[in-house]
Specification:
seven-stranded antiparallel β-sheet; seven-stranded mixed β-sheet; 23 helices; about 40% helix; alpha+beta; 24 strands; about 750 residues
Amino acid sequence: MKKKMLLVAMIAALSFQAGAAVPDKVADAPLKPQVGQAQAAVLASRVLTKLHYKAAPLDDAMSEKIFDRYFKSLDSEKLFFTQADLNQYAIVRTRLDDAINGENLSVPFAIFNLYQTRLRDRIAYARELVKTGKFEFASDETYQIDREKADWVKSDADMKDLWRKRVKNEWLRLKLAGKDDKSIRETLDKRYENYLSPSRQPTSEDAFQIFMNAYAMSIEPHTNYLGPRAADNFDISMRLSLEGIGCVLQSRDDYVVVREVVPGSPAGLSGKIKVGDRIVGVAKDEKGPMTEVLGWRLDDVVALIRGPKDSTVKLEIIPADAGPDGKHAFVSLVRQKISMEEQSAKKTIYEVKDGNAKRRVGVISLPTFYQDFEARRRGDKDFKSATRDVERLLVELKKDKVDNVLIDLRNNGGGSLNEAVELTGLFIDKGPVVMQRSADKKVEVESDTRAGMTWDGPMGVLINRGSASASEIFAAAIQDYGRGVIIGEPSFGKGTVQTLFSLDRFAQDDKVRYGEVKFTIAQFFRINGGTTQLRGVTPDLKLPTMTDAESFGESSYDNALPWTQIAPATYIPAGDLKEIIPVLDKKHVARIAKDKDFQYLAEDIALVNKQRKENAISLNETVRRKEREQQESRAKLREARLLAAPGADDPILLPDPKDALNKAIAAKPASGKTAPIPKVAGVKGALRSDDGLQGAERTLAAELEAEKLAKAAKDVLLNEAVHVLADEVALLKADSRMAARVIPYAQPTTAGK
């Protein structure tokens, strides 16, 4: 079976680290190309110039594109380089192709080292401002929020003024959050110091991968170079499993901290690892020496901890409740296969009142189209698969007697093409699902060949701008077949197919790994002949969104493939929704017009769009304080609504019988008193109060609590999608002739009872 992937994940979502597990001890020393990198660059160029769907020669014209993208990749917000820096390297603007072909990477590395120098210079200046600067907040200065499309500043003097405003803004944020000057100085100085922490220092692998991605993405947005470690991490993300101990780790200052312990994992079963524990030493095996990892990069520590199944790893930890000088503990754990269940498909059931009746809607959330390709190739009967998991959940929902099913694909960036085809097959009988056109214009049709449907009742798909690739294939097929209602916002618009090509096949030495190239080999088309490329899937019922189409989505790329179409496939629609969609839309519009949550959401969207258009924030304390007060007032109104009891018309989340008892026991207060209602962070996606802090500057407990509350927050858009599907059930049950046209294949026990 071909190993095809469909991805929307941008380069920043990939792990950029590769190479040896022991980190470089060269924080300030210039980075140099490592063994094998020059050869990997040449090999990658041969693949990209010969096999890519949009093959382009590696010449002077491509070199200019690489030059521009490389500088932008390093400094996307234009906070470090000046125009003078770019001018300094103008002479090599058309020579980066020669650097690759001639196996001489000195220029790309020199540019990267200049970036590191500029980074240190700017951070040193910021720390100087924090230490000695005194800011006034009475003037009408402004700071540009998004500088991605801004011009490069011309001189160091201009750059210093830009950083003065940046530091002033960060100081003001903390001041408005109630911090005094001493606390602000400590917070900001530590923040900038952490930018230069050894745990954040780049390696030659980082420099090489960023440069090679500048080349790859200059051809087409979804083409990437993956270093050895990035390739390994990508494989893990697809199969949703790895061999390790079952801890989610995070860098905080110079420590690697346990952020989560996976239930049922070696760490979880041992009872010896707790959230907040700091790992300061690792021995890769039972007899190996303990390696101190204080100040190490997170990915290097993870590489030490991972290992073959049934092998032993030793950890030296400082317990969460102990100070920096607390007594260290030593824990030995046997590595096992860890399943990343958090990314697996999950189901919930919502109940909606409809007069005297109650409609049950089953919701299946699918974060990605995952598949363990290697296990499937080996013939493993229990290989991890999105389709198999969803099929199991559909069978359970049938037993739960749901009336309608919603597949939630929001922020699902894609994955396996094969999974998209097979998942579609759960809702249609045999037939084509998607077409692919290769570079030589040959068209292949990918079809569902399995007879019958796992779910033959009414269904819908919830999408947003983050739904891409495989998500778009599935949603488009469901729409073209007339099989279900598509709800949400226009999807990402990625209509291309990628494959992975391992460069290691050319390696002469097992110790040298060249990495992989992920590149576009085809464009996919809907069975109606159109493509989702650039335009995405247009929902039947649109929901409001805060997404900026100009900065997120296929149309935001300057070199995306154009929209086009081919002859449609031969297929028979499974149903006809033309009659029912206008009725559902009318009910939807009438309902949200009276819904306070949607009124709040509309206000937030208007505010975000206004800020996005202005792209500037005031540095005047009086102005900012007034804005903050207005924002906090909005947040309180939303919180009050969220803490109120559900309204008579709100969908009710039904408890899962499997864990309802455990949840009830866990929620029962020890004193016997009624447990306090936790404050909800707000409507999902709503604006919240600014505490002026970043990431790890908050305590781990506060960070985890915020995530917990965000998950518990009312999901306004999901609730409305559930309402739409409940409306559909009511209409179909009230009109058997309409039901026969919308879902003519459904069994009476499913939709017509």
